[in-house]
Amino acid sequence: MKMYRKNYINPLKAPPFQTSLVTSTTMEKSIPPVFLLLLSFVVSSSAAILGDVPLNYTHVCDPVRFTNIGLDMSEYTYCDKSLPFDVRAKDLVARMKLSEKVEQMGDKTTGVMRIGLPAYEWWSEALHGVSDVGGGSTFGGPVPGATSFPLVINSAATFNRSLWRKIGETISNEARAMHNLGQGGLTFWSPNINVVRDPRWGRTLETPGEDPYVVGSYAVNFVRGLQDIEGTLNTTDPNFRPLKVSACCKHYTAYDVDKWLGVDRYSFDARVTEQDMMETFQPPFEMCVKEGDASSVMCSYNRVNGIPTCSDHRLLKQTIRDDWNLHGYIVSDCDSIDVIVKAHKWLDDTYEDAAAQSLLAGLDLDCGGSYRKALAGAVYQGQISESKIDESLTNLYIVLMRLGFFDGRPEFASLTKPDICSRAAIELAEEVAKEGIVLLKNHNDTLPLSSSQYKKLAVVGPHANATEAMIGNYAGVPCRYISPIQGFSSYAEVTYATGCGDVLCKNATMVFPAVQAAGKADATVIVAGLDLTVEAEDLDRIDLNLPGYQEDLITQIAESATTPVILVIMSAGGVDITFAKDHPKIKAILWAGYPGQEGGRAIADVIYGKYNPGGRLPLTWHKANYVNQLPMTSLKLRPVDEFGYPGRTYKFFNGTTVYPFAYGLSYTEFKYQTSRSDQIIPVNIKIAKNQHCRHVNYTDPEVEPSTICPSVVVEDLACEETVAVRVGVQNVGKRDGGEVVMVYSKPPAGIRGAHTKQVVGFERVFVGEGKTENVRFELNVCKSFAIVDAVGYKVLPSGVHGVMVGDGDRTVNFQVKINYHH
């Protein structure tokens, strides 16, 4: 989305809906201006946004509020708490004129004061902490900042579901506290759950990586953390389940080109096969809606196979609303309808055309002004009926009612300033940063360093004193910054030399002082990498190298060093650091991503051994020549032999890598063991005599299994069968540590176009020195072993499937034989 930030807030300002009580453009003209001014003072004063004093008016349907604005609340059915939300929402919408309705269909709504409805700003962000991007949440006065967690790519590297949920819970606590203080919204357009298909994508830092199952798992847990209220999960009708705050799955769908060699997201047409849609691009969103019960989905700027996503009836209404049963609303990425008209020029649309088509497709809310400008005209032109507007408004107001915007949420009323930037939240931010650090190299167990032996430390490089760079984009104002040199200062006497003017490192004039500093130290830590000048929204990368003279800086320090050199990379996307990986004098390499406000402390704690790293790479690190082998605009996941394209992501890539997906080392050593004597697990599935079976296309027909049924469409199966896989994770090293246990499935050999392997399970476990932890995975046969064929059928093939637990040398293999019988 387009990012706009507000850096100032009047500490006396009331929440958006309260301020709007006196500023709404729809207020009756009969009210004298002098009274408006007096009312403004009364409302602002009664809000009492001073220090930690709570608001008197925290919701719309407060009798005192209605009295103050000259209305009798008992006359307004939408404020009757005894009625269902849908009845109340319909009553509210029915009271509006068409001209008033369309004013409520942009992210900045005007409200309708004559019926007691205040304005509301829908746009708030919480990608990795409450942000001031958008207008719904702001900083200043009683709320100078909020906890800034590591970027999502870092959180993904922890492979820790419970941690993902805890991050969401903590962010929503702070969001509710900010709302109580008049500085926070309730609807947050997060998380970003697009799969990273290409390593050049500039928004990689916002995402959980390249595996659809991992991305979807992150989405489910983060959204649950944001939205869920304890004790309300068994609500009879999920459409009315109370929400703590509202989350949004974005950007739907097949969106991962921002700006690359003249191609931008506003005009890009993503040409995607149904196979790739079902297998890669759609699953995270389906999981987010169906398992996470997200209350919103955001459609993306691009077209998919010729149709703008925000105007695609099949993608929005048919899929999200009907097939996945969304309990919430669909919103556009900001100014998407304007993009349809000006950039896509789809069907030579006017604004009325584009607005009508988007509304009919299922788009409830326009982040922007196009709906407000064009919907009334579309009604008068006969392109849509007013009832379609009513449906969308009803969807929107039901979500606000679930949030307590109208009735309040007493269970969160006590949250206030002490719940923002609390000690617990700051410690969680540090824990996420440490769990997400990935150890890529540790020659001869150089790490961890001993503080008694390595007392003088040179900390050099463009990120050695990083602060804002650590929190990346969609960031608010953090509670504080702990830079790398600050973090290391608690362990050693630190000498700092930047080595580069900035990340772009356009000249080598600062290299020699950094080399000198390294020569006087017991060890040197080089903190290098990328930042938002290289990879960001609206900015894709053109290569996979370190910018400018960074490689020269690292190499010269290593060549002249007589003491250990440790390289720390801050980046989201992979970087070709083969030169450092193979350099004998660079003893250790760590990836720290964009580690958030506590990043410097986390990096230092890992390098000096206070914390044993256990993170894994959530995406493949490719060699630099990858970008010369295929254009970013090709969305095919499988190799294309006729063009020489390698495959994309670990599932299909057929070349060599710098580091593979899920790679990561530890300061200790783990071994996997199983007590299972038989390595073949039979799964017998009974089918009816008239069951329709599908052919499976094998590269060699002779290896096709002899069976009465090569495969069955998943929709035709009960999918009740499961396979239990158990492994013991033994810590045979000399330190306690966390281990990420990955589980992959592999389809029967020889199926044309099938993935090499795919993640079907993972678990992060803590194992004490010399201890063993048993881990059990229950794999649903359809979810774990189905494939999508070339024409878009999701089928479960018969034959021998592989199950691999672990990576590299510590892999335990099983086989699952699926057999159909009458």
Terminal residue distance? 53 Å
Instruction: Kindly state the number of beta strands.
Output: 27
List unreliable stretches of 5+ residues: 4-56
Radius of gyration: 28 Å
Number of discrete domains: 3
Read across the widest sheet, the strand sequence of neighbours is: 9-14-13-12-10-11
What does this structure look like?
Residues 4-56 have low confidence and may be disordered. With 822 residues, this protein is α/β, with parallel strands linked by helices. The chain has three domains: 16-417, TIM Barrel (Alpha-Beta Barrel), CATH 3.20.20.300; 435-626, 3-Layer(aba) Sandwich (Rossmann fold); 670-821, Immunoglobulins (Immunoglobulin-like, Sandwich), CATH 2.60.40.10. Strand 26 and strand 27 form a beta hairpin. The strands form eight sheets. It has a six-stranded mixed sheet. It contains 23 helices and 27 strands. The two termini are 53 Å apart.
Main attributes?
TIM Barrel, 27 strands, six-stranded mixed β-sheet, 3 domains, Immunoglobulin-like, 822 residues, Rossmann fold
Record the SSE blueprint.
Blueprint: H1 16-23, H2 33-47, H3 63-68, H4 85-94, H5 98-102, H6 152-157, H7 161-180, H8 212-227, E1 249-252, E2 259-260, E3 263-264, E4 269-270, H9 274-281, H10 283-290, E5 296-299, E6 303-304, E7 307-308, H11 314-323, E8 329-332, H12 336-344, H13 351-361, H14 370-380, H15 386-402, H16 423-436, E9 438-442, E10 456-460, H17 484-489, E11 493-497, H18 511-519, E12 523-529, H19 550-560, E13 565-570, H20 578-581, E14 586-591, H21 599-607, E15 621-622, H22 649-652, E16 657-659, E17 670-673, E18 680-686, E19 711-713, E20 722-731, E21 737-746, E22 758-767, E23 772-780, H23 781-785, E24 787-788, E25 794-797, E26 799-805, E27 812-821
Parallel strand pairs: 1-5, 4-6, 5-8, 10-11, 10-12, 12-13, 13-14, 18-27
Antiparallel strand pairs: 2-3, 6-7, 9-14, 15-16, 17-20, 19-25, 20-23, 21-22, 21-26, 24-25, 26-27
